[in-house]
Amino acid sequence: MSLGQLVEMLRFQRAIRLRGDVRNLHCIVSTADHDGSVSTTPLWVPLVVAGIGVAGTLTAGIAGGLITQRWADNREDKTWARERERERERWAREDEARTFEHRREVFEDFYQAVRALARRAYDHGYGFDGTPELPFDWNADAGAKLNRLGLYADRRLAAAAAAAYNAAFWWGQHTKYDDPDDQEFYERQQRFDDAEYELLVLLRQALSIPEGDLSLPVPGYSNTPEETAVSEDKPLWRCRPGRSARPRSSRFAGCSAKRSQVRKFRT
Q1: Whole-number CA gyration radius for the chain
Q2: Are residues 73 and 175 in the same domain?
Q3: Which of 10, 137, 162, 230 has a CA positioned 20 to 30 A from the CA of residue 27?
């Protein structure tokens, strides 16, 4: 082989290699155009994606914490509201108990005072008190306690208390000293007994005292006001110590008066 032929062969091989490299480069460019830019992705893209992920995680954590705190606050508010309601109920029970005790004391004081007022009227009529004229303020204690009772009693009980007080007061005001022969004396006594019975029934109701057989009279009474006020086996009235049993009228003879006409004050 001559030198010229050898040179031509080397040129031909070089041209073949160059053509293969161009063909390979064309395939690479075509593939890149078809699939998009892969190897040339900018660096900031994954950083942005990572930042979005971190921000989402932080946001979810903060939101979850806020929701949990809100639920905890709601539970605490409900618990505090229940505690306050229980406290108010306890205070209301304590106030009710104190008020009931005050009412009981006021009712008892008035009942004793109006009974004492009626007793004074009874003793004045028989001359047992030794005072021909009742004192000007003989009803002051019962009147003051009646006013105090009005603060705690309902309207029905207050009206019954006023009726009992008025019956006792006018019994004493219209009673003649040491003159039990006066028929109005016993009529006024009967008015007071009826008013006192009604008052006692309402007082027991106001104090929530349990009742058994309602057909029976209230404790302290042997009969209802419509029946005989006292039994026949008890003395109905007594003479003043040192007083002679002189006849007063055809109906009464001192201490031997008829029991059907003279009644003892109920103690």
Answers
A1: 56
A2: no
A3: 10
**Does the residue 34 lie in any domain?**
no
Tokens for 200?
């006692």
Q: Which tens digit of pLDDT belongs to each residue from 151-191?
A: 999 999 999 999 999 999 999 999 989 888 888 999 999 99
Taking the C-alpha atoms of residue 229 and residue 266, their distance in angstroms, rounded to an integer, is 8
Single-letter residue type at 259: R
Query: Which of 32, 62, 88 is at the close of a domain?
Result: 88
CA distance 83 to 49: 51
Are 84 and 131 contained in the same domain? Answer: no
Q: Per-residue pLDDT tens for 62-79?
A: 877 788 888 888 888 888
Count the Cβ atoms, other than its own, within 10 Å of residue 52.
10
User: What range defines the domain where residue 74 resides?
Assistant: 53-88
C-beta neighbour count of 84 within 10 angstroms: 10
Q: Is 19 a member of any domain?
A: no
Cα separation, 93 vs 68, whole angstroms: 38
Which bin fits 143, alpha (ψ -120 to 50), beta or left (φ > 0)? alpha
